[in-house]
Amino acid sequence: RIVREYIVKTNKLKKVYSSASQKIIALKEIDIEIKKGEFVTIMGSSGAGKTTFLNLIGCLDRPTSGKLDILGCDPTKFNEEKLSRIRVEKIGFVFEDFFLISFLNALENVQLPLIFARNYKNNNRPRDLLKRVGLDHRFTSFSKSNIFFALMFFFAKIKGNSTFSLTVKVGIK
Q1: How far is Cα 126 from Cα 167, in angstroms, rounded to an integer?
Q2: What is the largest CA-CA distance in the chain?
Q3: How many Å apart are CA 51 and CA 49, to the nearest integer?
Q4: Which pLDDT score, from 0 to 100, does residue 149 have?
Q5: Is 73 helix (H, G, I), strand (E, B) or coil?
Q6: CA dihedral sign, ordered 78, 80, 63, 164
Q7: In a 3-state reduction of DSSP, which class is residue 110?
Q8: End-to-end CA, the chain
Q9: Which tens digit of pLDDT belongs to each residue from 143-160?
Q10: pLDDT in tens, 78-91
């Protein structure tokens, strides 16, 4: 078995957005290796390409040119169904807005990623995770900030060694 040192590797990664009147180069020849266990911060001014880069390594968009390797795979060769599967099973996203289902309580929102991943064998796991972060009294709560913290902990626990998480402008309003 080959053990890869990196989880994200790009070579001359480029993204261009085109319209009838102009071309906007959002990313120009980005080379980066993100190794397993590293903590990486993507920083830059508005319009620098941070979101575009995160969308590419999160398999939400495709590069215009260059090479992209995510967990030993080239996502540019996959169809939308395969990309969706990778996002569900391998990549955790935390967005500025929590994107919680408002009519679901805390427990149900934490159960949802397992259901989507078709990995809902242990019904007690979401309850145990809420207990571990001190939210067992909130099983039926609809508080977004409490559910958000539980989901962050949940994603940290369900993602294996060969996975990574993307954090995009995390904040509580």
Answers
A1: 21
A2: 56
A3: 6
A4: 56
A5: strand
A6: negative
A7: helix
A8: 45
A9: 555 556 556 655 555 554
A10: 999 888 888 877 88
